[in-house]
Description:
This protein is an alpha+beta fold. Helix content is 27%, strand content 24%. It has three helices and five strands, in the order αβββββαα. The protein has helices at 3-26, 108-113, 138-148, and strands at residues 39-46, 60-66, 70-76, 85-91, 99-106. The chain has a five-stranded antiparallel β-sheet with strand order 3-2-1-4-5. Strand 2 and strand 3 form a beta hairpin. It starts with a helix and ends with a helix.
Amino acid sequence: MKRENKVLLIIIICGIGWIIYFFKYKAISPPTTVILKNAKYTVGEITSGYYGDRARRKGNDFTFKYEKGVIRNAHQDGEFINGRKYLVVYDSTNIRNGYLILDKFDITDSLNKYHIYKNYNQYDVGWSLSKIPFKYDKSEIEHEVKMNLRSE
């Protein structure tokens, strides 16, 4: 086998290995009803204004913190205001099952009212649906989540 063919074979094997690694360990699927089983809610902060067609994506960028301080940068279309904070729901056992920021639940003012503050530039909080401290109807939150999930 020629040297060029060996190098090409090694590149192809490494490429296939990287693709498998990405889809198995790094890719996060769109949220489905699977996240409802172990749903946890936290604070997501909008970090950009609305933009259209950045590589065919519309919406806003946001960040949130989950499981042991891992910060996730994400993107979602919706009616958000840059700098405001919204409820984010995610699967607490496996973030790869998806997450969703809820544009109907702006909690910016509630965070101050309930004395919930940032810890090292992020909110280090997480609640089950029944323990969310804000004065929103829990059934409305659950309904909004279900309306935005994709079926399995």
